[in-house]
Write a structure and sequence with these properties.
Layout: E1 4-8, H1 18-23, H2 25-28, H3 39-52, E2 56-62, E3 67-78, E4 83-90, H4 101-114, E5 120-126, H5 130-138, E6 142-153, E7 156-166, H6 184-187
Parallel strand pairs: 4-5
Antiparallel strand pairs: 1-2, 2-3, 3-4, 5-7, 6-7
């Protein structure tokens, strides 16, 4: 089993080879931006997040190999409301399909709730990204809504599934563990 952790990144940590991760055809199938990301943009984003203090970018590190194989983003963190966006990205294709995603999401949730005192995490997933939807729901996230035909990806308008995870220390009722929408359409079950 692969042992991993999160390492907060600085711009100096970013490697040129990561540009291939972000711009691969595989990645472009599942992103809402529809644009190629340059390494300079990633470095700028990390620097801005550090300056603002509310957007953190982490490298997902294979502990045994001491190698970054993806990234995780927490934020922007809204301290007043206790909210934050959270997303993971496995960039190195050698780590895809190994059942890591839900474990990474669980670790990121624990970090956000305990270290950064976030009470609710949220994110969104394009409807065709069933692997991410499965990983997040396995990690205890719930679908709270859908924006129909919201984002255009590769020439096709797709639904945007809004998902969230509540800190179980404060929210333990059934309503915080039950999907607000039927996911069968998206998971093809």
């Amino acid at each position: 089993m692969i042992e991993f952790d999160f390492k907060e990144l600085s711009p100096e940590d970013v490697l040129e080879e990561w540009q291939e991760w972000f711009n691969s055809d595989h990645t472009q199938q599942y992103t809402r931006s529809g644009r190629k990301i340059k390494i300079a943009e990633l470095k700028d984003s990390i620097e801005r997040g550090k300056k603002q203090g509310n957007l953190l970018t982490f490298g997902i590190r294979d502990v045994q190999k001491d190698q970054i194989f993806g990234t995780a983003k927490l934020g922007p963190i809204d301290d007043f409301h206790g909210l934050a966006d959270f997303a993971i990205f496995i960039g190195d294709k050698n780590y895809l399909g190994k059942g890591l995603s839900s474990r990474l999401i669980e670790l990121g949730c624990a970090m956000a709730f305990e270290k950064y005192e976030v009470r609710k995490l949220h994110s969104g997933i394009l409807e065709r990204n069933t692997a991410s939807l499965k990983a997040y729901t396995r990690a205890g996230w719930i679908a709270e809504g859908v924006l129909r035909s919201h984002y255009k990806n590769n020439g096709v308008y797709q639904d945007w599934i809004m998902i969230s995870k509540y800190d179980p220390r404060f929210y333990s009722g059934e309503e915080f563990n039950t999907h607000a929408i039927d996911l069968a359409k998206y998971l093809k079950i």
